[in-house]
Amino acid sequence: MRSPGVIRHPRAKLLALLALFAVPPLLAWVMVTWRIGIPEQRTAHGELSPDIPVLAAWPLAGEPAPGLAGDWVLAFDCAERCEALADQWWRLHRALGREAPRVSRLRVGGEAEALPGEAVAQWGEVPAWRHADGLWVMDPHGRPVLGYGPEVEARDVLDDVNRLLRMNPEGVRRGERTLAERTAGREG
Predict the structure, then answer these.
(1) pLDDT, tens digit, for every residue of 55-101?
(2) Phi, then psi, of 182 in degrees rounded to 5
(3) Distances (CA, A) of 92 to 18, 54, 96, 123, 155
(4) Rounded CA gap, 136 and 73, in Å?
(5) Dihedrals φ, ψ of 133, to 5°?
(6) CA-CA to 68 of 20 to 30 Å: which in 6, 39, 84, 99?
(7) What is the SS3 assignment for 3-60?
């Protein structure tokens, strides 16, 4: 005859195992439902996915520089504080360090001479969504990712751009073959 303690021990193990798998989803559901333990702040300092068209659909007079294709783009409106903004975003671009070649700058408006590495365009017609002295970060396909007002701090933009570049590593550098292409070349 078996003692009652032997039968309970496997049941206790089974209940512990069930609790191990049942408690995390239950806890997650409680956290999401009652917003317990979920941070309220966003990590981006600007407006995520601003409601503006893709860069190719902007009403610009002429064609923006062809070098913008495939790069992240810092597009900024140069209305009132043009020279100060152009200098600020040039300095931010330099602060990116080794990631700087992945980012291009597009200044829209202003009469000043272009700073190094800056493409300049003019509004063909001023769109309704334009913010004077605003800044927009566009992905390599020209889609808007972040939008900033004129009061934004350059440090906040630098943090956001660094985070974007870190989270979106560059696939294949221009002129560099992929691993598959290099191994296929050795076999053939």
Answers:
(1) 989 999 877 666 677 889 999 999 888 999 999 999 999 999 999 99
(2) -70, -40
(3) 53, 23, 7, 24, 8
(4) 8
(5) 65, 25
(6) 84
(7) CHHHHHHHHHHHHHHHHHHHHHHHHHHHHHHHCCCCCCCCCCCCEECCCCCCHHHCCE
Residue 127 — left, alpha, or beta (φ > 0 → left; ψ -120 to 50 → alpha)? beta
- Give the residue among 42, 41, 45, 73 at the shortest CA–CA distance from 160: 45
Q: Which residues of 5-38 are buried (b: 16+ CB within 10 A; e: fewer)?
A: eeeeeeeeeeeeeeeeeeeeeeeeeeeeeeeeee
**Average pLDDT in the 6-29 region?**
85
* Rounded distance between C-alpha atoms, residue 151 and residue 83, angstroms: 15
Tokens standing for 9? 């021990």
| SS3 assignment, position 66 | helix
Give per-residue pLDDT as tens, 121-163. 999 999 999 989 999 999 999 999 999 999 999 999 999 999 9
In this structure, what token pair is assigned to residue 186?
A: 């050795």
Tell me which long-range contacts 84-93 makes (C-beta under 8 A, separation of at least 24).
85/133, 85/135, 86/110, 86/112, 86/115, 86/118, 87/115, 88/154, 89/135, 89/154, 90/115, 90/116, 90/117, 90/118, 91/154, 92/154, 92/157, 92/158, 92/161, 93/117
First-to-last CA distance in the chain?
A: 74
